[in-house]
Amino acid sequence: MAGRVGRLPAPPGPFRPEFWRSPIRGPWLTSVFGLVLLIGIPLLFVTGLLSYASYNPGLSPFNDETPDKGILGFYLFSWPTQPYWLYRLLQGVHVTLGVVLVPVLLAKLWSVIPKLFEWLPVRSVAHGLERLSLLMLVGGVIFEFVTGILNIQLYYVFPGSFYRLHFYGAWVFIAAFVVHVSLRLGRMTRALRSRSLGAELRTGLAHTLPEPPDPDGLVPVSSAAPTMTRRGALGMVGAGSLLLLVVTAGQSIGGRLRATALLAPHNRNPGSGPNAFQINKTAAAVGVTPQLVGTDWRLEIHGRGPGLVLTREQLLAMLQHTAALPIACVEGWSTEDQHWSGLRLADLAALAGMPDAGSVLVESVQPPGPFTKVVLRGNQIRDPRSLLALRVNGADLSLDHGYPARVIVPANPGVNNTKWVGRLTFRA
């Protein structure tokens, strides 16, 4: 039976080797794209894991968008507050690199697409396992890139938490990636050595010939006349990545480059004045009305002993401190340093009778939802730049920036810098 099945002819179309005729497709070009991904994807994975650690998910259920991560959270550690720009750099690299690698990824998939249409699809147990790993690899990388790009473009269309889907997807993909690299690294090295990059960059269309036949079947069995050189393919992919870098990176780098970040949804002109910098969600979008933060607003402070209830005027009458800190968010965008003023969290902890507090529960007056509550660590409380901010750039906070009071902490993800704060509970 197995012998008869093995002799079944391939159906017409892409399952037949003669269907794929591009003379530039082959192990060398595939390996060049693979080498770029071999460098970029581990960096993408590591920065993603560190981004998750920055939420301090092991500190409290309020911080943990992936509560059933199990052993996959083995690497988590207490997130530091310095350098203060750490999260801005980390998430900027993660998002920008992910976008820039898209043309390389598409080119790599194009170069190996004949492998996806092998006939028979499964020839043996070993071949079936290889095909399964390939399916996990291709499916995983497409899932990670698509969900990541949708999130940074603010298209929340996920059937559940983006954090959970992206986190698990990353581990599935990286497992398949490691297996694939371990199986193919030797072949990739030999393929890269088989041709000189410099020579290929000097080869014109008339001298663009297919590579010798390869055991993986990437080289066409019946090639067509070339319409593009390998130099042209590399140049087109490189130009695509460069273009995406230009229209994305400015949202993280800032300065004059911010005007070039055309793909950044938060890069639109935020207006003028002291509060003219990017926001994630407006007060109206999360249901914070002027009534919730009007004259009846009070800040509750709890700790050891009876709690305190303070008006904004009473808070402004206390000793004020300043800190120059950016806001940086998971979507990769960030602001330049803004000049915040308000009360140090350490001073508020002392006021609550807990100068050595191990954590603080920060609660917003906004209606219940994700990140309306967050827990900050003791090192975040004690950093002198960690503030309950009342003003920014010399003016009162605007409603969209968290009026009457918000938290601002060095190296903290934007969503953990809670806006519209109504209660602080310091804990041992």
Structure described in brief:
The protein has 428 residues and is an alpha+beta fold.
Chart the SSEs and their pairings.
Blueprint lengths: L1 H5 L20 H27 L32 H15 L1 H15 L8 H28 L9 H33 L2 H6 L27 H17 L3 H4 L29 H4 L12 E5 L1 E6 L1 H5 L4 E5 L12 E7 H7 L7 E6 L8 E5 H5 L4 E6 L2 E2 L9 E3 L12 E7 L1
Pfam family, one: Oxidored_molyb
Keywords: Membrane, Transmembrane, Transmembrane helix
Protein name: Oxidoreductase molybdopterin-binding domain-containing protein
Our Rg estimate from Cα atoms comes to 27 Å
Strand content bin: 5-15%
Strands of the biggest beta sheet: in what spatial order?
A: 2-1-10-5-6
Structural class: alpha+beta
User: What is the CA-CA span between the terminal residues?
Assistant: 71 Å
Question: What fraction, in percent, of the residue positions are helical?
Answer: 25-40%
Keywords: Membrane, Transmembrane, Transmembrane helix
Transmembrane segments: 28-53, 85-111, 132-156, 168-186, 233-253
Pfam family, one: Oxidored_molyb
Protein name: Oxidoreductase molybdopterin-binding domain-containing protein
Describe the structure.
The protein has helices at residues 2-6, 27-53, 86-100, 102-116, 125-152, 162-194, 197-202, 230-246, 250-253, 283-286, 312-316, 345-351, 378-382, and strands at residues 299-303, 305-310, 321-325, 338-344, 359-364, 373-377, 387-392, 395-396, 406-408, 421-427. It has 428 residues and is α+β, with helices and mostly antiparallel strands. The protein folds into two domains: 2-260, no CATH class; 283-427, Alpha-Beta Complex (Sulfite Oxidase, Chain A, domain 2).
